[in-house]
Design goal:
Largest sheet of chain B: 7 strands, mixed
Shape of chain A: globular
Distance between the termini of chain A: 38 Å
Helix content of chain A: under 10%
Helix content of chain B: under 10%
Number of helices of chain B: 0
Largest sheet of chain A: 6 strands, mixed
Number of strands of chain B: 11
Radius of gyration of chain A: 14 Å
Largest interface: A-B, 25 and 26 residues
Oligomer: heterodimer
Strand content of chain B: over 45%
Strand content of chain A: over 45%
Shape of chain B: globular
Radius of gyration of chain B: 13 Å
């Protein structure tokens, strides 16, 4: 099936640093979603984006829906140890079955205290 | 609060056994999904259902079947488990009002020996 290009694949940073990750697609999306998964748990929704250009924050997290509707990014400011986990982007394409999400492969984040 | 529960967190089965994984959501959601997650492969959609008794194949349906007899419950069935079905299985649901925002259960780690 189709997949999103999510980068970077992994990051190892110092506590207090800012983090940026992004997702790109070859087709236009109506929705972008960002999830976080802790080890051994299911993904948890962090931010949902529904409009091109939309910028949404959730605490130290900020995500944007790209103007072209083919990309999205997630920023984490002032990282802390509990930010460790895998971050996934997901999107709903404009064409096709809108119930299904297309997923990125994830960005694994490690934070050094 | 949104809740998706899965019948087991960990399951060990033998090759050839029939395996049932159960998922229940308490949000009156129309759509339910089964994914499997393997390292480096992200989340891959097995089957989904948009209504009671309705089902659609995802990207990797081979070796699996599903059942949705009640709105709140979606079952994944491995007719004859094989070692290559050892994986983390995740159930998710979404409703018409939150059309694309999928809410996940905690996952079932299945090992087939």
């Amino acid at each position: 099936g189709q997949q999103l290009n999510q980068s970077p694949q992994s990051m190892f940073i110092q506590e207090g640093e800012d983090v940026s990750m992004n997702c790109t697609s070859s087709s236009i999306f109506n929705t972008w979603l960002w999830y976080k998964q802790d080890p051994g748990e299911g993904p948890v929704l962090l931010i949902a984006l529904y409009k091109a250009g939309e910028l949404t924050s959730n605490g130290r997290l900020t995500a944007q829906f790209g103007i072209t509707r083919k990309d999205s990014f997630l920023n984490i400011s002032a990282s802390i140890p509990s930010d460790v986990g895998i971050y996934f982007c997901a999107g709903a394409p404009r064409a096709g079955n809108n119930r299904k999400l297309i997923w990125g492969l994830g960005t694994s984040l490690a934070v050094n205290p | 609060d949104v809740k998706v529960t899965q019948s087991s967190r960990y399951l060990v089965k033998r090759t050839g056994e029939k395996v049932f994984l159960e998922c229940v959501q308490d949000m009156d959601h129309e759509n339910m999904f089964w994914y499997r997650q393997d390292p480096g492969l992200g989340l891959r959609l097995i089957y989904f259902s948009y209504d009671v008794k309705m089902k659609e194949k995802g990207d990797i349906p081979e070796g699996y079947s599903v059942s949705r007899e009640k709105k709140e419950r979606f079952s994944l069935i491995l007719e004859s488990a094989s070692t290559n079905q050892t994986s983390m299985y995740l159930c998710a649901s979404t409703g018409v009002s939150s059309y694309n925002e999928q809410f996940f259960g905690p996952g079932t780690r299945l090992t087939v020996l």
